[in-house]
Design goal:
It contains 7 helices and 6 strands, in the order H-H-H-H-E-E-E-E-H-H-E-E-H. It has 198 residues and is of the alpha+beta class. The structure holds protoporphyrin IX containing FE. Protoporphyrin IX containing FE binds next to helix 6. GO terms for molecular function: heme binding; iron ion binding; monooxygenase activity; oxidoreductase activity, acting on paired donors, with incorporation or reduction of molecular oxygen.
């Protein structure tokens, strides 16, 4: 959530496209979005994929142990070896992704429109892949979509100083930001919509 909001604040064109999509598919006369709304928000879904590509919540997988001798890209791996996947490195690999550090949700509507995060496309595996991949994937994606969509529907969001968000990462198991994201929020919808919800 934090990285998605930070990326959108630093990429106002993308933020405006999300808002346009919300205006078209939800409108400004209703507050709460539900799951049936989010399926129409294809640009927002691309924003989430692109965020999980550049800033996967877990940059490294959990430790896996080879149960038998095997070979990975020509490297011999003995049974019992502990293996970690560097998911972030794969997802930022310039041999696979053009301008990998650029935030371009449009990739997932054009050149990479058939790539998803469900563990089948090995260039994008923020939830890892295979039998031990993240069991929380469906829950995480739904909650991300719903929360991000609702927050961006309800509020105009700006940085406090109007300056770009500091995108430095801190070391950690879960991709923390080096500095907290601080934003100012103001209502985006007409007052009666918030009053109806009380
Ligand atoms: C955007 C959100 C999330 C991301 C990107 C994510 C990513 C991951 C990754 C990469 C792994 C390691 C898998 C492997 O090494 O093969 C993992 C494991 C796991 N995740 Fe998630 N996760 C997320 C949210 C969640 C949620 C919401 C839950 C629970 C409700 C959850 C529960 C777990 C569990 C239990 C494991 C360990 C699975 C095992 O070792 O068998 N995750 N997750």
């Amino acid at each position: 959530m934090t990285w998605a909001l930070s990326l959108l604040l630093n990429n106002r064109d993308a933020l405006n496209k999300v808002k346009q999509e919300l205006d078209i598919h939800v409108g400004k006369d209703r507050l709460l979005l539900t799951e049936s709304d989010t399926k129409n928000l294809v640009y927002l879904q691309s924003v989430i994929k692109e965020t999980l590509r550049i800033y996967p919540a877990a940059p490294l997988s959990v430790i896996h142990e080879a149960i038998e001798d095997c070979s990975v890209s020509g490297h011999h791996v003995s049974a019992g070896t502990w293996l970690l996947l560097n998911l972030q490195k794969i997802q930022r690999d310039p041999q696979i992704w053009e301008d990998p550090l650029e935030f371009r949700p449009e990739r997932f509507m054009t050149t990479h429109k058939d790539i998803d995060v469900k563990g089948h496309d090995f260039e994008l595996i923020p939830f890892s892949s295979g039998r031990r991949m993240c069991p929380g994937i469906s829950f995480a994606l739904k909650i991300l979509e719903l929360t991000l969509a609702n927050v961006l529907h309800w509020f105009e969001i700006e940085t406090l100083s109007g300056e770009a968000v500091d995108m430095r990462e801190a070391p950690g198991l879960t991709s923390p930001k080096a500095t907290p994201l601080e934003v100012k929020i103001t209502p985006r919808l007409p007052a009666f919509v918030y009053q109806m919800a009380n």
